[in-house]
Amino acid sequence: MNYPVWDVPASGLLIAVIAILHVFVSHFAVGGGLYLVLIERKASRGGDAPLLDYARHLSRFFILLTLVFGAISGVGIWFTIGLVHPQATSSLINTFVWGWAIEWTFFAVEIAAAMVYYYGWDRLSARLHMAIGWIYVAAAWLSLVVINGILTYMLTPGRWTLTREFWDAFFNETYWPALFTRTFLAVGLAGLYAIWAAAWLPDPSVKARIARDAAWRWVLPMAVAIPLSLAWYLNSAAEAGVPVAEIAGSKDTGLVSLLTAVFSTGIATGYPIAQRAAWWVIVAAVVLTLLTIVLAAARSRTYGRPLAGAMMILGLIAMGGSEWVREDLRKPWVIGQYMFVNALRLPAPAGAPAPPEAFVQRFGADRFTIDAVNAAGVLKTSAWVRPVPAHLLAPDDYAARVEHQGRELFRALCSSCHTVDGYLAIRPLVRGKSPEALDGVIARLASPADAAGTATAWNTLPVRAKTWRNRRMPPFAGTDEERQVLAGFLALLGGAAPSSLSPPAPSADIGKTYYDANCAACHGPDGLAPLDPKNRRPAEFYELIGWLPAINEMMPAFEGTEEQRKALADYLAALPGKAPEGGAR
Amino acid sequence: MIPAIPQPDPLALPAPAWLLWALLLLTFFLHVIPMNLVLGGSIVGAIARVRGRRPDRSHEAQLAHIIVKAMPVLISVTVTLGVAALLFLQVLYGRVFFVSAVVIGWWWLGVIGLLIVTYYAAYLMAMRESSLGASGTFLAWLIAAVVGLIALIYGNNMTLMLKPAELVARYAADGSGSQLNLLDPALLPRHLHMVLGAIAVSGLAIAVLGVVRHTHDAAFGQWAVRYGAFVCVAATVVNIFAGVWWLAALPRDVLLQFMGRDMRAIGELLAGILLTLTGAGHTVLAVTGKRPALMVTISAATLLGGIAMMLLTRDAIRRLSLDLAGYQPVNWVAPQWGPIVIFAALLLVAVGTVIWMTRAFATAKPGRQP
Fold first, then answer.
1. Is B290 exposed, middle or buried, given 0-12, 13-18 or 19+ CB atoms closer than 10 A?
2. Which of A232, A263, A559, B235 has a Cα-to-Cα distance from A164 of 20 to 30 A?
């Protein structure tokens, strides 16, 4: 909200599409270079003219794909994140400008070496040509080495959250496993691309030689190495505080547990989007591995472009899906323990370098932390919120004001992930819900917890975002009135009548108020409750309220006051019991 | 009143501002040279391709061929150097740059698509030139048009970012990222000035090419020096008017700085004009005088100096405009000296490696050696 939100539907999806296509090419740019040089060396040493021709043929494909699409789509990611998430991009640039500058030196050498290599086939000696190739390989891999530090920092920022030091950010907890994983991916992808390129060769014996070599030496070893390095990565992430098991819906971060959770049907826990993405990754990777074995063992002479194309698509799904899972592991953060996906920052933790007095005098205190926005409100903090038109300010036109301001709040706080009716649509989620119920849900989207799950403060690091029903949402930030306005807007989206909205007023019935705000989202409004009072007495309800998560793990713990607990127990006891099968929705 | 300019991150600037500014200017200068050759060269190349169809204009056909072959490499160098300039721009001016980028969002993102189209078109031309026929001419004009459009989109972003208050109003009116800054009176002359400058630089490059080629192909060499000088001088003469138009179209408060209030800005502008005219003039001497190689060298050196001064003038417009808009630089600096030193060392290694590879390529004889 410090920066304007680009009003496009599914902006996150835009990043995902560009990024997935880019990584599929950029990892090939790393592994493919190594493949080319090794193939050229093998062909040169053995005087193998057909293999040398293949290397030359592949280098043309390589240059056209990596130098043009690979390089430009990489710049494209940068453009896109700047548009979709300027606040996070600004923080990343500030932290890593020298990392990117260092990466740029490798990138420049990589581009120059690729060009000289490609144009040098008919000019340079074989030895010099291969030397240029090796320079390319080194520069491309070192480029990955640097970018990996920035990517992993976003998930596990390590000690940076307290020190703000470059190296603490760079060499974070998942740096090494991620580097190995990406290197293995690059090597495996090189083999996959080689199989694809060989499908065009007219000579079956040359094709078979290349395909078998690529399958046995490049793809299949990586099919073993990648899962192992991924397991290491997930463990490191979990140790760094990323709720890997919670997101997968498994009991721990062991590979078997995670796999079991992903393939369990009807699982009630975990983060469904991440689980689905992981399912696709595993299925695509397994099918790809099996196809590679079949191709290498029995079809290397006869396979054609359809099979090679299918393998490429499977590779794209596996790779894209794994990047998707990585992004989901990070949610609700955009930069772990520093900034949420909706650009809200945590209040500065004690011990972190604070801005000097001159800076604060010039720019004021940070206006975009959760605490600051809670105190001042979104509408009075962001320059990018459209002001309320005069005709909506009439006191009796509350619904119209809610619609206008609610939309602005939705854009500022929710639209980094949600659309109204498209990708991650909000309308189906709020259909039929009352403003009070939605207000209750919004109030409990995320809360700070320590590693043991005990409530803590947002600026007590390390902190975990304990999210409502594990939906990986950032907390709401804004005033109470803004929260009610947003709830009203969502209720309108869900079909509530404008006349049902009224300015918040203190309710005489504490129990009903608490129920509407905290229970009705799942249990429905009173009278239709799919919870079964079973003629329980208020005292029984009072006890049950004390251990809600034990009754059903999807229920959050009661967080109200003693007075609210008693009133809620009274209210529940007074509800008619007519629960349908299946309990709460 | 909520400030129109976003609040800086609560993070220290990772280097002294002067260092970031110097690197921004240096990398942008290095980017502008190949960028001018892509922008101006694509226009000159397309014209040469059309004119070169006549049998008595074989030199123009030859020039068009050379430009076609060079274009993929030039685009690559332009992009590579541009990335660095954009990086340093974002550190120093991200607070206004990101906002203007959002306001023109789809256009800004469109740069990527346009660049990919241009780049592939340039490779297609370079690899299949002889078999393309009439579609080759179409592609040549397509490249010129798309590169011109990319330059225009960049110009839109770079001018919009100087008007923070207007950005708030524009975003309130439409946040979909479909706007451009076309009604800014300074935009069109600015764009024209840039395009004409690019054509002039390309003209000079053709003259340089003529000098280099003279020993192998005297006829083409002489023609290229003459033709390049003509292009350079003609574009520069027209550009004087475009430059005056741009200056006159600047906001009044900025213009007044160039009219006597800011001596540094005035000095940079005058030095830029003087050096550019000197550079263009020496290309004429290369045609009429006895020592074309020396004249072209002087021309190149002075024109490059002129470009450097013009970039400082452009920077002065940015600085003055943002000052007037209330933009204040970040005054919390905690330099990351370790990474800075590593960058400096690697930059030297990278420059050395690129030079070594380029020399190895340039000095190798055609034909694969065992």
1. exposed
2. A232
